[in-house]
Amino acid sequence: MFDEDWVYFQAPLAEMTFINRIIEGCDYLGVVTALDGRKGLGFVRTTKDTAGETKEVLQSLPIPVRILSRQEALAAAGQQ
User: What are the helix and strand counts (H, E) for the chain?
Assistant: First the structure.
């Protein structure tokens, strides 16, 4: 259900729309989806080819974005 190739992240809740707009602006990278919006957890549905670049874009943003493993993201969202 949750793919290993997707990029999981945590960011301030107030910045989720900003992240979505940036990723949408890079229309070949992927699609942002909230995993637990109240906790600022989300993921970008990427492919193996776009995952690395997506991580670079997220980490270059002028806001704190923490890249998570799939396991970390699911545990933080309480979805084991």
Answer: 3, 4
- Which residues are 10's β-sheet partners? 41, 66
Residue 46's nearest CA partner among 19, 63, 64, 23 is 23
Beta carbons of 32 and 20 less than 8 angstroms apart: yes
pLDDT at site 32: 95
Residue 52, token pair as written in the block: 């690395």
| pLDDT for position 80 | 64
69, pLDDT greater than 80: yes
> What torsion, rounded to 10 degrees, do the Cα atoms 45, 9, 37, 1 define?
40
Helix axis angle, 48-60 relative to 16-25, nearest 10°? 130
As a whole number, mean pLDDT of residues 37-64 equals 95
> What are the beta bridge partners of residue 34?
42
